[in-house]
Amino acid sequence: MGGVYSSGISVSELRQSGDTGIGCCEGLGGEVLLIDGEAFECTVDAAPRRMRDEETLPFADVCFFGSSVGERIVDADFDALTATVERRLRSRNLFHVVRIDGVMARVRTRVTARQVPPLRPLAEVAAEQVETETVERAGVIVGFWMPRIYQGITVAALHLHFLSDDRAIGGHVLDVRVGEAVLRVAAFAQFSLRLPLDEEFLSTELTHDEDHRITAIEGRARPSFAE
Predict the structure, then answer these.
(1) In sequence order, what are the residues at sequence separation of 6 or more whose Cβ sits closer than 8 angstroms to the Cβ of residue 32?
(2) CA-CA distance, 110 to 169, in Å (whole number)?
(3) What is the C-alpha to C-alpha distance for residues 133 and 131, in angstroms, rounded to an integer?
(4) Considering only CA atoms, which of 136, 196, 160 is closest in space to residue 5?
(5) pLDDT less than 50: residues of the chain
């Protein structure tokens, strides 16, 4: 939020901490999904691609998914999807990974353009985000439902990224209507936080002053799809 994202964790290191997750590209140059141990970059100027081990992410949430019983969902908008996920929570005080495999009747995603120094705050970058809406697209959605108490460390509530099976479309999910898919949710009671050690990060005090902007930036930027 404060424009401090000049360093990050490498893809190879990331994969040591999980096989499923989401994040952002170096310089906020797009959105990242970690699916079955493979990292994919979704950017504004090219189709999604598999990332190289040496590439870095300034932010990521990852875990090892493990096994989880799937639940079939049909014709669910974002609110219905959220309600279904929240019914499956072990507790609203635990962390939960979410994965949805199937056909999205509609999905609206966003990506941001890669930044160069001087780096701008996320709110300014997100104001210029590129949005894409696609229909009847098979793919996978991964992300997390996080407890509200950890807002700021991560993004509270539901935070999802989408990647189409044909690897043509991907990004942060602003809105979605699931056509027919299988939902899996798994709970976690522990987390490990890794912080950067570059001089810019060490000399910039982080606060909660901008937390209110995270909801606006990571949430649904426009009204839901019209019926």
Answers:
(1) 22, 23, 24, 25, 39, 40, 41, 42, 51, 57, 60, 161
(2) 10
(3) 7
(4) 196
(5) 221, 227
What one-character DSSP code corresponds to residue 150?
G
Phi, psi of 164 (to 5 degrees): -75, 150
**pLDDT value of residue 26:** 92
Tell which residue, 127, 146, 131, has the closest CA to residue 217. Answer: 127
State CA 95 to chain mean position distance: 14
What confidence score (pLDDT) does residue 219 get? Answer: 66
Contact between residue 17 and residue 192 where contact means Cβ atoms under 8 Å apart: yes
Q: Which of 173, 142, 1, 9 lies closest to 65 in space, CA to CA?
A: 142
Q: Which of 165, 127, 179 is nearest to 40 (CA)?
A: 165
Residue corresponding to tokens 């044909």 = 166
On whether the CB atoms of residues 174 and 221 are closer than 8 A, the answer is: yes
The structure tokens listed for 159 are 């935070």
| pLDDT tens-digit series, residues 120-168 | 998 899 999 999 999 999 999 999 999 999 998 899 999 999 999 999 9
Which two tokens mark 130? 């590129």
Q: Which residues pair with 201 in a beta bridge?
A: none
Report yes or no: 68 and 58 within 8 Å, Cβ to Cβ: no
Tokens linked to 203 = 């000399």
